[in-house]
């Protein structure tokens, strides 16, 4: 796995134009991040990892979960949210997926190059970030009040595949 903090495109991966972007803000659990990287490889989706992390990028569990797919992912490491936010292209659309959002994830129309933003496994997205982006705050419906949360990599897969479905799975092999 290579750190691409100075270059947004993984240098060993053939360059492709990602259709969507996944953003993990302060991920804590290595296998979740590895699973998301594998998902991004399979869907040709760009992955943005925003520090601080709850693990080291050379963590064995991170590598194991991502298997050999890390070399197929266009990913970028960001030192903090501000650094990530400052590089966004004009007009970028960000969707913040967090519990209690006013709309559920399937109620919006996703577009090419959208950013799907997910927070830490234990605390979710920072409240200030959600409050500043209420119009883009989405939830995944839950049906058991005793269940605290869903697994991060499962949440990413649900929302990403809904966005891809809306784009008619363009580019499917």
Explain this structure.
The chain is α/β, with parallel strands linked by helices and 173 residues long. It has one domain: Alpha/beta knot (3-Layer(aba) Sandwich), CATH 3.40.1280. It has a seven-stranded parallel β-sheet. Helix 1 packs parallel to helix 2 and helix 1 packs parallel to helix 5. The N terminus is likely disordered.
- Supply the number of helical segments: 5
Largest sheet descriptor = 7 strands, parallel
Distance between the termini: 25 Å
Radius of gyration, whole Å: 15 Å
* Shape, per Cα inertia axes: globular
Any guess at the CATH architecture?
3-Layer(aba) Sandwich
Strand content: 15-25%
CATH superfamily: SPOUT methyltransferase, trefoil knot domain
The CATH class designation is Alpha Beta
What low-confidence regions span 5 or more consecutive residues with pLDDT below 50? 1-12
According to DSSP, the number of beta strands is 7
As for the number of domains, it is 1
* Mean pLDDT across every amino acid position: 88
The CATH topology name reads Alpha/beta knot
Short description:
The chain has 173 residues and is an alpha/beta fold.
Properties at a glance:
173 residues; alpha/beta; Alpha/beta knot; 7-stranded parallel beta sheet; 5 helices; 16% strand; disordered N terminus
């Amino acid at each position: 796995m290579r750190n691409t903090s100075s270059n947004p495109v993984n240098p060993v991966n053939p360059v492709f134009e990602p259709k969507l972007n996944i953003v993990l803000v302060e991920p804590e659990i290595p296998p979740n991040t590895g699973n998301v990287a594998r998902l991004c490889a399979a869907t040709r989706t760009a992955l943005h990892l925003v520090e601080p992390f709850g693990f080291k990028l050379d963590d064995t569990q991170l590598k194991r979960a991502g298997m050999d797919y890390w070399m197929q992912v266009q990913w970028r490491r960001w030192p903090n949210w501000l650094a990530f936010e400052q590089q966004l292209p004009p007009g970028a659309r960000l969707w913040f997926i967090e519990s209690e959002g006013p709309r559920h994830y399937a109620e919006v129309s996703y577009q090419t190059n959208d950013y799907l933003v997910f927070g830490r496994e234990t605390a979710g997205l920072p409240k200030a970030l959600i409050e500043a982006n209420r119009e883009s705050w989405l939830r995944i419906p839950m049906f058991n009040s005793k269940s605290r949360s869903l697994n991060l990599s499962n949440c990413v897969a649900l929302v990403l595949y809904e966005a891809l479905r809306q784009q008619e799975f363009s580019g499917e092999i």
